[in-house]
Design a protein that fits this description.
Radius of gyration: 20 Å
Number of strands: 12
CATH superfamily: Alpha/Beta hydrolase fold, catalytic domain
Helix content: 25-40%
Strand order of the largest sheet: 1-4-6-5-7-8-11-12
CATH topology: Rossmann fold
Oligomer: single chain
Shape: globular
CATH class: Alpha Beta
Number of helices: 9
């Protein structure tokens, strides 16, 4: 007999404020009718008493949706709830064309390929690396795998256009809510750099969890990082109109002024095949005048993680050093200096 699934009977009660709203897209005319292109869904939660000055915006990875920040596959609270418990107002977006942010090819362009079970296993599951011990369900648990893959959909086929829309909508979100901290994961990593490039005065810090890369890479089934750490253009100084000029330039030839004084943390996991992309991403950003820091979770005693570290069995432990870094970079120390 199948056991009844009723997590609401065991989850602890908590007092929060919550809601949702939309960042609208632009109107487009098709034939004799008008449609909206690429709106962005935003869900928010806040504790009864907010004790942190800046809200946190959580940006999900490729093909997934904002739910990756909520409950973990094994039913524990995810980073969104933990950040609320830490005193932050937390906003979770569904990037345009993902999750509850509607997708139609007539307004957003063609879709990329669907997300496969094989792709999910390749990205997230323990493979040949015996250090990967924190995945939250057994590799032969097909019901759990079905539930995990269910949240995935296709990405827009045009990566540059998708990143541009992500950054434009998130910049509009910051225009509405004011300054905020960005936490990105995987394919939303480039969005963090692009949002800060658009709104340097409104981004207080970026914590990029295994951001997509490395610079100038061709990402299978996703697209090309033509502009270094992004597929969409950044505002380089001197201005760059040709991505090949940036690719072939010596380090230090181009600057990204919007990132110069921005606290940036790039987090990697010891058993993730994607971690190797992060050091060259940090090197590129720092070569453009940023001060990106690398955090290997293993150096902080957080072991056994892969690319899905934000929802693996020790996700609370993985958050702890990131939260400590955010606190150190965005809250006033005793001498009164903070960004």
């Amino acid at each position: 007999m199948t056991q009844t699934f009723a997590p609401w009977t065991t989850a602890p009660s908590r007092t929060i404020r919550r809601g949702h709203f939309w960042i609208p897209g632009e109107r487009v005319a098709i034939g004799d009718k008008t449609y909206q292109r690429g709106p962005m869904y935003v869900e928010w939660e806040a504790p009864e008493q907010i004790t942190r000055e800046w809200p946190v915006v959580l940006m999900h990875g490729g093909g997934f949706q904002g739910t990756e920040w909520f409950d973990t596959p094994d039913g524990r609270p995810g980073w969104a709830q933990r950040l609320v418990e830490a005193g932050y107002a937390v906003l979770v977006i569904d990037r345009p064309g993902h999750g509850r942010s509607p997708y139609h090819i007539d307004t957003l362009g063609s879709m990329g390929p669907p997300f496969s079970y094989e792709g999910g296993r390749q990205i997230y599951f323990p493979g040949d690396d015996p250090r990967h011990t924190q995945w939250p369900f057994a590799s032969d648990d097909e019901a759990e795998m079905d539930a995990f893959i269910a949240g995935y959909g296709p990405l827009p086929a045009d990566l540059e256009a998708s990143e541009t829309m992500d950054a434009d909508r998130t910049a509009a979100l910051l225009d509405r809510i004011g300054p905020a901290i960005l936490i990105t994961h995987s394919a939303s990593g480039p969005d963090g750099w692009l949002v800060a490039d658009r709104r340097p005065d409104l981004v207080k810090a970026i914590a990029a969890i295994e951001p997509m890369g490395p610079p100038f890479a061709e990402i299978p089934n996703i697209g090309a990082m033509r502009w270094g750490p992004t597929a969409a253009p950044l505002r380089f100084e001197p201005p760059a109109r040709d991505p090949d000029a940036v690719r072939l330039a010596q380090p230090g030839s181009y600057a990204l002024p919007a990132l110069a004084d921005l606290p940036i943390l790039i987090v990697t996991a010891e058993a993730s095949a994607f971690a190797a992309a992060s050091p060259p991403t940090a090197a590129f950003l720092n070569g453009c005048g940023a001060s990106a820091e690398l955090m290997d979770l293993a150096d902080h005693g957080v072991r056994g993680n892969g690319h899905g570290l934000i929802y693996e069995k020790n996700s609370d432990d993985a958050l702890a050093p990131v939260l400590a870094w955010l606190t150190s970079k965005t809250e006033l120390p005793r001498d009164g200096a903070a960004r």
